Amino acid sequence: FLMERKTHVKINRKEVMLAKLRRSCSCTPKKLKNFVMDFLPVLRWLPKYQCKEYIWGDVMSGLVIGIILVPQAIAYSLLAGLKPIYSLYTSFFANIIYFLMGTSRHVSVGIFSLISLMVGQVVDRELLLAGFDLNDDAPSALGDGSLQNDSQPNTTAFNLTIAGMNAECGKECYAIGIATALTFVAGVYQVLMGIFRLGFVSMYLSESVLDGFATGASLTILTAQVKYLIGIKIPRSQGHGMLVITWINIFRNISQANLCDVITSAICIVVLVAAKELGDRYKHKLKFPLPTELVVIVVATLVSHYGKLNEVYASSVSGAIPTGFIPPKVPHFNLMLRVAVDALPLAIVSFVFTVSLSEMCAKKYAYTIRANQEMFAVGFCNIIPSFFHSFATSAALAKTLVKTSTGCQTQVSGVISAMVVLLVLLFLAPLFYSLQKCVLACIIIVSLRGALRKFRDVPARYHVNKVDTLVWVITMSASALISTEIGLLVGIVFSMLCIVVRTQRPRTALLGQIQDTSFYEDDLEYENLSPVPKVKIFRFEAPLYYANRNYFLKSLYRMTNLDPNLEAARRKKYEKKEKQHLKKLDHTTANGLGIGETNLQLVPKQIDFEVLVVDCSSISFLDTTGVNTLKEMLKDYKDLNISVLLACCNPSVIDSLKRGGYFGKDFGSMQEMLFYSIHNAVQFAKDQK
Question: Which family would the database say this protein is a member of (predicted)?
Answer without folding.
Answer: Belongs to the SLC26A/SulP transporter (TC 2.A.53) family.
